[in-house]
Request: fold
Amino acid sequence: MMELLIVLAITAIIAAFTVPMIGNGPSGAALRGGARELAAGLRFARSEAVAQRHETFVALDLAGRRFKVTGDPREYQLPREADLKLFTAQSDIVDASTGAIRFYPDGGSNGGRITLASGDRKYDIDIDWLTGRVTIQQ
Reply:
């Protein structure tokens, strides 16, 4: 009986230290899913710009952790605990927490990088200015 109590006490001590570490930030799958969803939105915007023959934007709300594609009525939510950073052309930055990536009818874009990070996990979504190609780098 005493041995069982000791095992339970050790388990409780280990759980007390590990549970707070597991709960910090979004899971790796949620962060990766957010990066893929954002990349899919960027690719969709590029294809719409080429198909419709007009500029298309992906507007990012950095503070609200969400984005919207021109012509799509939906607004997409990214993981709340993730840090979101945008590097793009100065002309497409509205303020400190709002900006956009622009795609042109020829398939090109203004280029840039969007970073989704949480702790030591980070995903960089690069947009090539010449081709509009979207890639995810871990």
In short: The first helix runs from residue 2 to 22. Strands lie at 56-61, 66-69, 75-77, 83-88, 93-95, 98-103, 112-118, 121-127, 134-137.
